Amino acid sequence: MAVRMGPLDPPPRLSEIADPALLLDFDGTLVDLAQSPDAITVPDHLGKALERKAAALDGRLAIVSGRFIADIRGHLPDCAVVISGSHGAEIESPEGSSVSEREAPRVPAAALAAAGDFAARTKGLLLEEKALGLGLHYRDCTASKDEVRAFAQHLARDHGLYLRDGKMILELATTDANKGDGVRAIMAQPPFAGATPIFIGDDLTDEDGFAAVNELGGFAILVGEMRETAARYRLLDVAAVHQWLEIE
User: Fold this and answer.
1) Catalytically active residues, by annotation
2) What is the pLDDT of residues 80-111, one digit of tens each?
């Protein structure tokens, strides 16, 4: 996997790419990050704009997020596109039917209870409960980051969960699926198969998606601050993503 550390150029215009297939992260890519997952602001036009863009690409647009699908649908109720949630563990058609091969297990109640107790006694820590995992957001308690990580590692060992890093978050999941798995599953099916995959994302967890599109002959676009990445191009922020997608 090619890793880039220097400045990245802006991507070519979408109209210049042959048969593009868009695979889009949600938080930090389509909507600005907020202090908590529930505090995001979703532009009123976003859902229908994405649906129109998907139609213009013959259906080749998917959202690939760490959020679970029902959460995404709640924020974009009027957006009939393919969605992969829970870091590739869930995939639904535009109509809302599951296309995943197997149903992933839910988080054990004992793990959720332990995480709730830990969050209650850790000032500033936000616990996010997901369908197939949980998130420990430490944006407001960075001084406790090491303590949070030690707890997350312990919880993962005790309950057979998978731990991954994100932006100011440690996520624990019931499967080892990642966004690259979601990308590969989507790109193997029509109308995506044979197209040029383009993954746009901002988080460390998006790097798996970046690697997948590179393997499939496409490319990735990093959103936000420069860091070590497998992306080939870069856009500055969410507004720049909307402008590049022409969904302003």
Assistant:
1) 25
2) 999 999 999 999 999 888 876 556 788 899 99
